[in-house]
Amino acid sequence: MVQQVTCGIKISVETSFEGTFYKNYKVHFAFGYKVTIENQSKVSVQLNSRHWRILDALNNDEIVDGEGVIGKKPVLKPGESHTYNSGCLLTSPFGAMHGHYNMINFTDSKKFKVTIPSFKLSAPFALN
Questions:
Q1: Does the model's pTM come out above 0.70?
Q2: Residues 12, 38: contact at Cβ < 8 Å?
Q3: Which residue spans within 24-93 are E strands per DSSP?
Q4: What pLDDT digit, counting tens, does each position of 64-92 carry?
Q5: A Pfam family matched by this chain, by name (predicted)?
């Protein structure tokens, strides 16, 4: 698990390998990840959007931007957390992801970014 705190918001990420399959005559490697967003600050915040950079061992680089997470824009009061599961496909058995969440502080209406720490994606059979 990787963790990072930005502006009082703690991001924790756990990953899992989900398997391989063929799509368009190419093998793909499926990975899952569970993200927990914990508000350790003294103010209420809302997650509005996300930005991901997904890299694989074959130098493929994908940028994903979108509103909220899994169709939600969670509001977190001090001490609250939100957990969600998602996943991605790679064309190699190794990769990494990182990014940030765009959030808003409800006390002063200021927008701020929360870093999603870099985490590795690796198929266990491909490890030494």
A1: yes
A2: yes
A3: 26-39, 45-56, 61-67, 75-76, 81-90
A4: 999 999 999 999 999 999 999 999 999 99
A5: DUF525
